[in-house]
Amino acid sequence: MPVKKSDLYSSIWKSCDELRGGMDASQYKDYILTLLFIKYISDKYEGKEFAPIEIPKGSSFKDLVALKGKPTIGDDINKKIIAPIAEKNKLLGTIDVADFNDSDKLGKGKDMVDRLSKLIGIFENPALDFSKNRADGDDLLGDAYEYLMKNFATQSGKSKGQFYTPAEVSRIMAKVIGINSSKVTSETTVYDPTCGSGSLLLKVADEADCNISLFGQEMDVSTAALARMNMVLHNHATDVQTIATGNTLSDPQFTDGENKLKTFDYAVANPPFSYKSWTNGLTNDKGVVNDKYNRFDGFGVPPNKNGDYAFLIHLIRSLKPNGKGAIILPHGVLFRGGAEAEIRTNIIRRGYIKGIIGLPPNLFYGTGIPACIIVIDKENAHSRKGIFFIDASKGFIKDGNKNRLRHQDIHKIVDVFNKQLDIPKYSCNVSFDEIEKNEYNLNIPRYIDSQEPEDLQDIDAHLHGGIPESDINALNKYWEVYPSLKNELFENGNRSGYLNLKIDKSDSNVGYSEIKSKIFSHPEFIEYAKKIDKAFNKWKKKIYDELFTIDKDVKPKKLINNISEEILKAFEDLKLIDKYDIYQHLMEYWTDIMQDDVYLIANDGWKAEFYYNTDKKEFDCDLLPKEIVINHFFAKEKEALEQLEIELDNIASQIEELTEENSGDESLIDEVKNDSGKVTKTLVKQRLKEITPSTKVYKNVAEPKEYYGDNYDEYKILNQFMELFDKEADIKKQIKNAENDLLEKLKEKYAALKVDEIKTLVIDKKWFAKIYTDIKTELDRISQQLTNRIKELAERYETTLPQLNEKVETLEKKVQEHLKKMGFEY
C-alpha cells in the first residue's frame, strides 16, 4: 500500500520518540532529521544526473542500512555516510552537526549500536519510498520534516523551542506581504534575519508564483543546520548557501561593503521576544551602543535590556526603498514608553507600518504571551494615511497545551487585511491623526473594542413580566433571514416595549423542544435550508470536473486551494451562516481524509484495493470504504444483517431481564452466575445436568413437576435461559454466515469496479456526502443558538418578583404551621 501522509507523520514521530530515552528533544531532533535527510536525498537523487544533491558512492541510505549491528556504527555514520555527502555538496556545518558517535547522548557499546540500528530501521520501512512521490508541488518528506520539528518544538521547552515558527502564523505573514503579486520574479529576494529552521522563509517561497532567492541568518549553529536541510527537503537546494550563521544584530552576514547592509525585496522575522542580550558585540568600552551600520540613526536606540525594536529596525533597514515585510513581536512594542515610545513615533511618522495584526496568546513555542504581526510597507509609506488594525485574538482552537489558529482564522485574517475590510469588533483603519491624539500608542484595544456586550438584566421585566423587546431586536441577524418568524414566536405584552412568548408550554417551564419545533418547521427556515443546498450544489457543480479528472499529475496543494476558494465564493452572499465556518469544515475534512485520498490517487490512480487490514483485523479499502459500496450495491443484505443484529440485541435484553427478575435474596440462579455476576450458557447446562434425575436423559422440554421435585422451579427458569441461549447462538450463526456471504460479494464487486464507478462513488458518496453533512450541522448550530437564547430570555422573566415573593410567603406560612404543630413557635 502507498504511504499516507497522516500515517507517515505519526508513525515516524511515534517510533523516534520511543527511542529518545532521556535525551532532550532539542538535541535528539538533530539525529532524527539528519537520518530523514539522508533517506530522502537517497530516494530522490541517487544515480540521477544533474541532481541538485550528489550522493557519493558508499554514502547512500542503503550503505547506512548496511552499518546496522556493527560495533563501529556511530563512527562509520559520521565518516562514511555524512562526511562524504557534506563535503561533496558543500553541506559542512549542515548535516554534520549531530555526532553519531557521542556516547554521552547515544549510549556506550551495545547500547549505541542497538539504538542507532533501531533508528535506521524506522526509515527502512519499504512504505517510505519517497522516490515514488508523484504529487507534483507537494513534498511528502519535506512536510514530514516540518511535522517532526513542530513536535520537537512542543517538547523542547521555552528556552529551546524557538527554532520553529508555527506554520499557521508563517502562512499569514507570507500572504500579507504581497509576495504573490505580479511584480515578483526570479530575481526577487526574501530575507529572514532570525530564520530559525527556515520554516517561515519557505512559507513565503510557497506563496510566490516563481522561484525566488531566499536569504537567512541564524545564531544557533545546529538550528542553522536545520534550516539548510529544510531548504533541500523543500526543493530549495540552491538556497542552502545563503543560510548564514551568526548574530544578526552584532555581525550581520549580508552586507554591501563594510558599513552598509544588503537590502532585500521582502523580509520576515520571528525574533526572540524581549531579547535581553541584544547589545552583545555592539557596545564600546563605555557600554554605549556603537553600530557601524548606523541602523538606529533617525529612529533611536532601543533599551539595553530589550531588543524588540532592534530587530524591527534591522528589518526595516534591510528592505529596499520599495520593500515589504512582516515581523512577530510581543504586544508590549505597541504601547511601552521611554526609548521605545520615541522609536515607535519615528517609525509611525515615516509611514512604514501598513498594519498590525493582534494574535491569540500561547501560539508560540518559546513563550505563552500574546504577540502581534507588524506589517511593513516602505513602497507606499509617503501616501499612507493611517494604520490598519486587526484583533484576531479570539480566533483559535486549543491544541494540547498550546493554542492553534484554525484554517478559517488564517483565511479571515488574510482576507480582511488584504482587502482592508472594516469589521466591527475585528478590524478598522485608524488615521494618523487619531494615532497622534493617542500619543502614538498602538495598543489594539484603544482602536478596536472586541469585548462582547454585557447581557444586561431588565429590572422592569423582573418586576412586571414580559420579555424586553430590545433583547429580541438584538437577535436581528436571525430576523433578517426569518422575518415573519419573530411574529410567530412573540406577541405584544401587557405594556409597550415588552413581548410574550407564543408557545404552548408542556409544563410550568418554557419548553425547549416546542421552540425548536416552531423554528425548524417554519417555512422561512425551510426556505433558508434550500438556499444552503443551492449554494452547496453550485459549489459542487463548479469543482466536479476538477475532482473527476484528478490523476497522477495532480498538485494537491493547488487542488485544495482552488476548491476551498470556490466554496467561499459559493457561500459568500448567504446571511447568517459564516462562510469561514463552511471553509473550516472543508479544510478539516481535507486534513483528516481527503488529502490522503488525493495522495493515494497521485501514487496509484483511481484504484480501489480491497485488502485485509492487519491493524483493524478486517477487509477494507482506504480510498473507497466498504460502507459506501455496501450502501450503494448491497442495501438489502445490509438491512437483513441489521435486522439480525436487532434480534440479537433483543435476545440479550431478554437474558438480562430474566437475570434481573430472578436475582435477589432467595435467588435460584446464583449457581449459574460467573464471578462477574453474569449467567452463562456453560454454567446453566452444568446446573441442569446436576438437577436432572439420572434415570432420565435431559430433554429441552417441560417436565412434570413431580419428576424434578424441589428443583422444578429452578429447572423452569434454567430452561428459559437455555431457550434464549440457543436462539442467541442460532442468530449469531446466521449473522456470521451473512457477513461471510457479504464479504465474498464485496470482493467480487471491488474487483469488478470500473474507474468511472470508483470516481463517482468516492466523489459523491464519500467526499461530497461528508462535507454536505458537516455544512448542515452549521444550520443546526445556528438554529440551536436562536432556540437557546429565546428559551433563556423566556425563563429569565417568566416568573416576576412579586410572584416569587408570594410563593416565598406561602411556603413560609406552611413551614410555620408545621413548626407550630411540632411545638415550635417564633
UniProtKB/TrEMBL annotation:
Give all residue intervals belonging to the N6 adenine-specific DNA methyltransferase N-terminal domain. 10-123
Q: Which residues form a coiled coil?
A: 634-675, 721-821
Residues of the DNA methylase adenine-specific domain:
138-454
Q: What is the enzyme's main class?
A: transferase
Instruction: Give the highest taxon in the source lineage.
Output: Bacteria
What are the BP-aspect GO terms?
DNA restriction-modification system; methylation
Return any one Pfam family short name.
N6_Mtase
Protein name, per record:
site-specific DNA-methyltransferase (adenine-specific)
